Amino acid sequence: MELCFDVDKARNYKSHSQIARVLTEDWAVKNLFCISCNQSRLQAARDNTKVIDFICDKCSETYQLKSQSKTLGDKIVDAAYEPMIDSIKRNRTPNLFLLHYNSTNYCAENLLIVPRYFLTLSCIEARKPLSQNARRAGWIGCNIVLKEIPLDGKITIIKEREIISPESVRANYDRFRFLSEKKFDSRGWTADVLKVVRDLGKADFTLEELYAYDEQLQKLHPDNKHIRPKIRQQLQILRDKGIVEFKGSGTYRIV
Ligand SMILES: [Zn+2]
Fold first, then answer.
1. In this structure, which CATH number among 3.40.210.30, 3.40.50.1820, 3.30.300.110, 3.40.50.300 belongs to the domain 1-175?
2. Sheet arrangement for strand 75-80
3. Cβ distance 24 to 60 under 8 Å?
């Protein structure tokens, strides 16, 4: 993987946004790899669909690239709200590459991938409708709230110009691949409980410590009347998949 973009590709462009688009797209097809299989390159999506930028021609996994010259913060601006919710409910969202590049030397600084199965209703936030004076008055966009996604759903590929091996990136993707077979609400619960486990910030934890988050989980799932049983159910799923271990008497450990 090369960190720096081929700036020659942008010599016929003047505007910053066009230059950035041309350079990041060119870099992406030369450097991004499939995280779901061993294919070393991705193809640019031919049909120019709004949400899918790249596709793996071996396993058909789909990808979207979002790039920005400022550091990746808590939120990523995405497209329209309702279609996003709809595609999450249908398990149709692509995997999301998030690229932070340096706009002075046009080199990649940081790159993450959010596996599509970690995009859940809990991490999508509606933005304010566009004002009456806007060309698309009333249109509602959305943000992807990265801090609502557990650590495991933000897989590092480049960290401050250091490149992580594809094998390690793919192993991290594989670990939670079981979520891709679940319906949106069920994988949403697993991700939310995993996030709470990760927020505790330690390897060993107790059920009581997780119960302290029941109000927070209730807000994310207002229709559910059985938050604590749901937490226990998700811990069993995480145990069955080898993510956490039961140590007995209400104590657990992250594997
Ligand atoms: Zn693939």
1. 3.40.210.30
2. 75-80, 141-145, 124-126
3. no
In our burial notation (b when 16+ CB lie closer than 10 A, e otherwise), range 210-227 reads: beebeeebeebbeeeeeb
Distance from residue 58's CA to the centre of ligand 1 (Å): 5
Distance 62 CA to ligand 1 centre (A): 9
Task: Collect residues with CB below 5 Å from ion ligand 1.
Answer: 34, 36-37, 39, 56, 58-59, 61
Q: What is the pLDDT of residues 13-41, one digit of tens each?
A: 999 989 999 999 999 999 999 999 999 99
* HEC profile of the chain: CCCECCHHHHCCCCCHHHHHHHHHHHHHHHHCCCCCCCCCCCEECCCCCCCCCEECCCCCCEEEEEEECCCCCCEEEEEEHHHHHHHHHCCCCCEEEEEEEECCCCEEEEEEEECHHHCCHHHEEECCCCCCCCCCCCCCEEEEEHHHCCHHHCEEEEECCEECCHHHHHHHHHHCHHHHHCCHHHHHHHHHHHHHHHHHCCCEEEHHHHHCCHHHHHHHCCCCCCHHHHHHHHHHHHHHCCCEEEEECCEEEEC
pLDDT tens digits for range 83-96: 999 999 999 999 99
pTM for the model stands at 0.93
